[in-house]
Amino acid sequence: MPVGRRVAQWRARRRMTQQVLADRLGKSKSWVDKVERGVRALDRVSVIEDVAEVLRVDPAVLIGRTAAPPAVTAAVDGIDAVRAALARHDLSPGPPALRPIPAPAELDRRVGHAWLTYQHADYPYLLRLLPDLLGDARRTGHDEAGVLVQVYRLTASVLVKVGEPDLAWLAADRAMTAAGGDPLRAAVAAIPLGQALRALGRGRLAHAATVTAARWIAPPAPQKAPADRLSVLGTLLLEAALAAATCGDAHRVRTLTDRAADLAEQVGDGHDHHRTTFGPTTVALARVAVAVDLGDVAEAVARHEEVTRRGGWARLPAGHRAAHLIDAARAYLLLGDLDRAGRLLVEADGIAPAETRARRAARTVIAGVVRGGPAGAGVTRLASALGIG
């Protein structure tokens, strides 16, 4: 697809007119129109970066390439091993005599440890754990606890984080298959499916998948439903809202987040039902993320400042807090507060470095801060670590 058509698509997603995009770039509306029609070529890297910054996408997205930051590139060996484990499908990863089938309690312990590793954003270490965990989970046979769904879901989630959405989609699809006819397990598996589809730029498909899964488990009387089911339902509604935000559907975003907020009040903070950490604080974080995607940056900043004063903020896993700070930094950058944006990225990097260095959004913010003028020492060091000059 020509670069100009990608610019037009992302401009429409961000609900910008050609005039608004032109004003933010310091260009004429005629210039934007010619770029989008292919009459004028975008052949200067600096201009592509400026357009990408205004549209809030990675420059690689506009030119049709994938560009992984150094921290992600360093994990390629781990990704290759996970890819090989997924390709083996039902085959044992080693001779039975050398790799006995683990006892259910031991496998549960390992899965729990892997989830904690994910929540603390130690993605390179988790990628090293997953190949054996995938093989052992497949070889357990009768799976009353749904361990295989959990492992495939975990695999898909971390692959989204490290920029491998295609492979994440495969793992999420395997999770859906492993769920069989169990509605709750299938709903749990739909969470990473929505994440993978959204990462692939398939916002409408992500919305459809998560809303459909939410219907599978929606109780007739939510007030009487168990908290674990409400947590999965609420998480699906938030994933659907995030997907709707990428499509610019503000009305649907509000409807979905409001429904999730009602469920969260019943569940409360401080729980981790089905590894969702769903609760009022989680909903508040999602409201910030969707506000940024919809271009409501003033609202995003206000909500960020409110949520970090909540009691539940400090109890969130490190990966969740770092991811939120990246979203908030995007909002500050769009408001023109470069200093605050940079300080939030440095703070996020101190909490969970792999989260900061895996997300392209973080690179976009740092690049914007560095280009905007003299940056502090912390921002400069982070820019160097991310390969941003």
Automatic annotation (TrEMBL):
GO terms for molecular function: DNA binding. Gene3D superfamilies: lambda repressor-like DNA-binding domains. It comes from the Bacteria. Residues 7-62 form the HTH cro/C1-type domain. InterPro entries: Cro/C1-type_HTH, Lambda_DNA-bd_dom_sf. This is Helix-turn-helix domain-containing protein.
